[in-house]
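User: For my dataset I need records formatted as: sequence, then structure tokens, nothing else. Please produce one.
Assistant:
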Amino acid sequence: MIEQVVTSTKILQTEHLSADDLDKLIFYAGGVKAKACFIIDPIQIAPRDRMLSELKVKREIVIQDQVFPNPKVSDIMKMVDNIRNDGVNVIIGIGGGSTLDSAKGVAAILSNGGELDDYLGPEPKMKVERKSVTLILIPTTVGTGSEVTKVGVYTSRTGRKYTLGNPLLQADIAVLVAEYVYNLPSNIIASTAFDALTHALETLWNKNATPLSDRVAIESATHILMWMEKAYDSSILNQKEGIAEMLESACMAGIAFSMTGTAAIHAISFILSEEWHVPHGVACAFSIEEVFNLNAANEKVRDKLIKVAKSLFEGDDDQLIDLLFQRILTLKRKLGMPSSFKDLNIEMTKEKIKDLFNKSLDDPKMKNNIVDVDEDVLFDLINNKIY
């Protein structure tokens, strides 16, 4: 993956990660007196669990598993309190996006002190200014890209979701382990793949886009659209084809959006997750077609989307945009992603939309969108989801 030269995170790729390999990595990263804490979720992942059992024979390690979807500040602070006096100098997160973000949060508080809530919101009380522990992240899904980003997403004690972005949250090392994703359920493949796709697309229609971020985002969007259906089919058929490729593609998308941030899709998705606990990737897929059309009207964005489409289809420019749009819709239907509130079993009225979704207008992610989204635009977009 040539794109790894663009990120400060060292990226290792392997089919299998042995206890011996990870023992070496901890030593190289943390020194002779290295003490590692593993942040994992309670989901059983056979190769990971086997490796940790073998590693315990070689060295003393600490394991914390208070990780749940849409990680809460309260759970992260419990893990911090559990290890604060253990001399930990290496944090290793192994899991999906919530796990990797939790590991970032634990590392940040160990290094800077205080309460994670103090760092969240539009006017935080504290800033992340130091990094005193080494952070190693190992994804077990094919979508979040958190292993190579400088952001974490956290649910505050008030229930609001906030994005915390700081270069010091960036992992020192990311390890892409193919065997950790081969047995993912098809619904997890589907939701995390759409999360990755929106990362790539939102980089393209971002006010912060640069020629560098565009190049990586076009490449990653193309790869994701090439492999996500094959990866989904393989997960159903108990095969492997396309899954490791999606893991790499999602990492590429993470590198891309780490340069720009996300935009309207993610701002809208946060409301779905806050109010109804919709899984993140599913929430991102919800509005992808409306936001696609909104931004495709911008000439610069249109040119970028045509570059993606040219790698996948043949036709003139208008045909290519339509073919790309139809491909996304086809994937949404096949992978079971929602296109309406009804699909999410949510009762919604026009009267409720403004009360619930206007909060997203103050989200910095919404302000990243190259086409400005005001109350009227947002209302029209969300109103389209009532049917």
